[in-house]
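Q: How do we represent a protein-ligand complex in a form that can be generated token by token?
A: Start from the inputs.
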Amino acid sequence: MIIRLDHIGIAVQNVNDALKFFEGALGMKLDHVALEEGGRTEVAFLPVGGTEVELVEPKDTDSGLAKFLAKRGEGIHHICFEVDDIDAALARLKEHGAQLIDETPRVNASGMQYAFIHPKSAHGVLIELYQKAKA
Ligand code: ZN
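Then emit the structure tokens for the protein with zinc ion bound:
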């Protein structure tokens, strides 16, 4: 079951430049900036109303994110929904014939499970599902 919109990922060329708009001009509050995926991306986290905007800058040239930026330019890259049971959510998607990027969830450093659904199956939107690590 989908619980909430966890974050919207926006692909940017440079996090610091993008913050001039999102923090400076728009007035969003920056929580923190971190290197993710073993240093392959730099992410600025801007929480708002129980969800978050994440500005994501690739630090390499061969990731999906870097290719997205080269081909499409800056813009919304993906949206992420929190689910209570990611295995059940992926099983349901398969039942409905959806194309998945991750057949089984990936696990990040903090034990959080996540998986991506291919935009071909989601009307052009890259969708990330994530489930909090069980306490
Ligand atoms: Zn994300």
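The domain at 2-131 is CATH 3.10.180.10 (2,3-Dihydroxybiphenyl 1,2-Dioxygenase; domain 1). The chain has one domain: 2-131.
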